[in-house]
Design goal:
about 425 residues; alpha/beta; Aspartate Aminotransferase, domain 1; Aspartate Aminotransferase, domain 2; 2 domains; seven-stranded mixed sheet; four-stranded antiparallel sheet; binds pyridoxal-5'-phosphate
């Protein structure tokens, strides 16, 4: 694909998803929308969100407790309104997904069921330099079981040459530890490098080793196509405020493969919202799990923190992951070309550390700019570009196919060139 001669305006005109940009609210800088490249951190607000939240406020005001059954979207089964869409996004059955809690909370709850160290099979394998919350969760789970994280957490470090994980090394580490591995838990798309791991291959390797395999999908859901059920993934969890645009602190999600549903003897922290729906209000004293992923719910649905997501998932349902992925590939390729233009026009030592092959990345590119990185980042911020800085020298840029356009990317490139030239 050579888009060099084509203007960004023409690319935007040819983009079948271009109109979706209008469905989102952009922060403004000097009267114009910012160049927003941080949808991987907090997705923008869909216009439809306000109506979803206001409906719940009105139903609460007018109906009080009756809203549990009589609200336009009744609160009692509120979480169920999300299952079909989340199932499409994760490649799961609707019964295998549930919207609940926060991401890190879900990781812990799922590990209660799925990290069961026994005998010498007690190690956890994860990626090196995992997102801090995941590291804390894994280490504290080990300590909770009386195990030393230094001995029992196996971290496969990124290749120092490329800055991302060598999948052969991951599989080799799984094979080498196959008698001692209890759990393989990794980020599907790495938050720092933007690398999308070969999830079916690593899931396979983990299962062959006799381990349980779980994925953190924080940077994967709504970004890359997933087939959790088909891949045989045991469990997964994600947050809803990044690519899913659910709003700050939005309610997170979890996936549990159906092979674990309905098992009363599976260790699990239990609460009344996981109990069989027909007898829940009879308040029996023995827990009987709902035979779906809902069994892992503890509390009733936080309706106000879930409502925004309905507006966003409607857009995902309309567009579908196939079309979204098509645009993401094209837009991210355009960003890569734009960065190459910045490099060649200025001679700056700019390097993309996200893997180049399409199959190994979502829409994010992580860019290392030695020495000048921070200054360029600050210039961009002052000139209406919202990007993300990670110490020591990485700028993360995520052109999000639902609302970013080619003009955003082109303008970013122009501003980077100015930033570099103004300094020299
Ligand atoms: C964003 C992110 C989190 C955030 O955790 P919360 O529980 O939602 O605060 C955790 N892990 C990864 C990999 C992330 O990208």
């Amino acid at each position: 694909m050579d888009t060099k001669q084509i203007t960004p305006q023409e690319l935007d005109q040819q983009d079948p998803l271009a109109s979706y940009r209008e469905q989102f609210l952009f922060p403004q800088h000097q009267g114009a929308p910012v160049g927003y490249f941080t949808g991987n951190s907090l997705g923008l607000q869909p216009r439809g969100v306000r109506q979803e939240v206001l409906r719940e406020l009105d139903d609460w005001a007018q109906q009080g407790v009756e809203g549990h059954t009589r609200a336009r979207k009744p609160w009692l089964p509120y979480h169920e309104f999300f299952s079909a869409s989340l199932a499409r996004l994760t490649g799961a059955k609707a019964a295998e997904v549930v919207l609940m809690n926060g991401l890190t909370v879900n990781l812990h709850l799922l590990m209660v069921s799925f990290y069961r160290p026994q005998g010498k099979r007690r190690k956890i394998l994860c990626e090196g330099k995992a997102f801090p919350s995941d590291q804390y969760a894994l280490r504290s789970q080990l300590r909770f079981h009386g195990l030393d994280p230094e001995e029992n957490l196996l971290e496969v470090m990124p290749d120092p040459e490329t800055g991302y994980l060598d999948e052969d090394a991951v599989v080799a580490a799984i094979d080498q530890n196959q008698d001692e591995l209890a759990l393989v838990m990794m980020g599907g798309v790495n938050y720092y490098s933007g690398q999308w791991l070969d999830m079916p291959r690593i899931t396979d390797a983990g299962k062959r080793a006799g381990a349980v395999v779980g994925w953190d999908l924080a940077h994967a859901i709504g970004n890359v196509p997933l087939k959790l059920h088909e891949w045989g993934v045991d469990f997964a969890a994600w947050c809803s405020y990044k690519y899913l645009n659910g709003g700050p602190g939005a309610t997170a999600g979890a996936y549990i493969h159906e092979r674990y549903h309905g098992q009363e003897d599976l260790p699990r922290f239990e609460g009344w919202w996981g109990h069989d729906k027909d007898s829940r209000f009879a308040m029996p004293d023995r827990f009987q799990p709902i035979p779906t992923a809902e069994a892992w719910q503890l509390s009733n649905a936080p309706v106000l923190s879930m409502a925004p997501l309905l507006a966003s998932l409607r857009l995902f349902d309309e567009v579908g992951m196939d079309a979204l992925r098509q645009k993401a590939l094209h837009l991210t390729q355009y960003l890569a070309q734009t960065l190459e233009t910045v490099r060649s026009q200025t001679g700056i030592a700019l390097r993309i550390i996200t893997p180049q092959p399409e199959s190994q990345r979502g829409c994010q590119l992580s860019v290392v700019i030695p020495e000048q990185g921070r200054r360029i980042f600050d210039y961009l911020t002052a000139h209406g570009v919202v990007a993300d800085w990670r110490e020591p020298d990485v700028i993360r840029l995520a052109p999000v196919p639902l609302y970013n356009n080619y003009q955003d990317v082109h303008d970013l490139g122009q501003k980077m060139i100015k930033a570099i030239k103004e300094n020299s």
